[in-house]
């Protein structure tokens, strides 16, 4: 009886909490810095039972990326980790500042400069996914590299100096961001699906009438620092579903360059899903990892499990949505595997399901025509645990990781990647137009 009463009291409390959060949620949209007053856990999702990423110690300054709801804010820690932390001022006190406000600098900022204006720039670069170092007002080498990546990405003069053009671009991007994040509020206590906050937003036509080809673009993680595009290309005829992924490692350009070409292909039959720049933050910074860590270790390692971070969960949700029979993940290694077993360059690493072994043999014998013995492609089996190919293979797809070697010229590597995708299409029975 008392147990029943307790449950009833809890239900009333939850309903009250929900209505309060709905009243106040929309007024909480602000971003800036926050000071940790008492140790608090950074979590993977905006809820108390979500996985803990780390304990953030007292005294640490956080960059607030987004107000998730009344109780949770999305933040970046000083070591570059992104997650959710409480808004309770006993634990985390907000330092009013608004990265969406127009930045007006009284001087150009460059390496070696210090000051509050550097803090403002670091916060904005963090929010946009270019900077994951300390927000300390010290314009050091990491800030310099972040500014260069930002300039490169936005086709500005790449000099690592924050002058009028770079400032204008920052303002332009964050002004648009302010408009698009206003609608991201939800009741804190509503039961959340496993991939809460990472559900993709469709921006194209969803349903395809039979007998009509179409291309649909979705943004995975829309509004986050790691958002990235997925393309769904449908042919006129029935056929296989094939998934091609590039850029899981941001410093392996041949994979994402090839995938960016593949996304523009037209097909006759089936459904082609392409995620060209899976780890966009890594690509923008020319580094292997995403803000969460190694995306190639983040996919589910057993049946029924989910990805270990928001990015892998967003991609995995699409895998589960489309259930592709064929998955190819495009990577690069630093050396030829045939010469150096420590690197997987010039290999195909297949998951031993379906006919993947015969595909791997066929692909490598084709690519090896005319190659000297010292550069031949090798066939390896069993992609690493936590990779997309391993997870897809475990769930019944024919899957592999294809690797070129960064010692070759970039154009050669992209050609190998394209050839691998073309032969994978043949293997799957997918025809290009
Ligand atoms: Zn890789």
From TrEMBL:
<feature type="compositionally biased region" description="Low complexity">
    <location>
        <begin position="183"/>
        <end position="201"/>
    </location>
</feature>
<dbReference type="InterPro" id="IPR036366">
    <property type="entry name" value="PGBDSf"/>
</dbReference>
<dbReference type="InterPro" id="IPR055438">
    <property type="entry name" value="AstE_AspA_cat"/>
</dbReference>
<dbReference type="InterPro" id="IPR003646">
    <property type="entry name" value="SH3-like_bac-type"/>
</dbReference>
<feature type="domain" description="SH3b">
    <location>
        <begin position="25"/>
        <end position="94"/>
    </location>
</feature>
<protein>
    <submittedName>
        <fullName>SH3 domain-containing protein</fullName>
    </submittedName>
</protein>
<keyword id="KW-0378">Hydrolase</keyword>
<dbReference type="GO" id="GO:0046872">
    <property type="term" value="F:metal ion binding"/>
</dbReference>
<dbReference type="Pfam" id="PF24827">
    <property type="entry name" value="AstE_AspA_cat"/>
</dbReference>
<dbReference type="Pfam" id="PF08239">
    <property type="entry name" value="SH3_3"/>
</dbReference>
<keyword id="KW-0732">Signal</keyword>
<dbReference type="InterPro" id="IPR002477">
    <property type="entry name" value="Peptidoglycan-bd-like"/>
</dbReference>
<keyword id="KW-0862">Zinc</keyword>
<feature type="region of interest" description="Disordered">
    <location>
        <begin position="180"/>
        <end position="221"/>
    </location>
</feature>
<dbReference type="Pfam" id="PF01471">
    <property type="entry name" value="PG_binding_1"/>
</dbReference>
<dbReference type="GO" id="GO:0016788">
    <property type="term" value="F:hydrolase activity, acting on ester bonds"/>
</dbReference>
<dbReference type="InterPro" id="IPR036365">
    <property type="entry name" value="PGBD-like_sf"/>
</dbReference>
<feature type="signal peptide">
    <location>
        <begin position="1"/>
        <end position="25"/>
    </location>
</feature>
<feature type="compositionally biased region" description="Polar residues">
    <location>
        <begin position="202"/>
        <end position="219"/>
    </location>
</feature>
<keyword id="KW-0479">Metal-binding</keyword>
<dbReference type="InterPro" id="IPR053138">
    <property type="entry name" value="N-alpha-Ac-DABA_deacetylase"/>
</dbReference>
